[in-house]
Amino acid sequence: MSKQDPREFEQKKIKGAVRTDFILSAEIVAITLGIVSDAPLLSQVLILSGIAIVVTVGVYGIVAAIVKLDDLGYWLREKTSRLAQAFGGFLLAMAPG
Predict the structure, then answer these.
(1) Is the Cβ–Cβ distance between 89 and 73 less than 8 Å?
(2) Largest CB tally within 10 Å, which of 14, 19, 26, 32?
(3) Residue 79 phi/psi, 5° resolution?
(4) C-alpha to C-alpha distance for 35 and 84, rounded to whole angstroms
């Protein structure tokens, strides 16, 4: 890891997270389709569209928040307050990867 370019490492992490999120979103839409399969076509389209939007915003929003947690941790580690530095270290320890 020490010889690996940090930008390349970050890009690989992001690519893996996006792939995982896409699969999760597709599974949720497939489950929803199974639930609404007996509904009229217009209802199916509206429900699936709504679920797809909510899932996409929700899943990618959570991933974005997690990615930003380590940025917040680095920012807090640079503060003069020991409490801020400690909390920043905690966030960095909890960050995935």
Answers:
(1) yes
(2) 32
(3) -75, 160
(4) 47
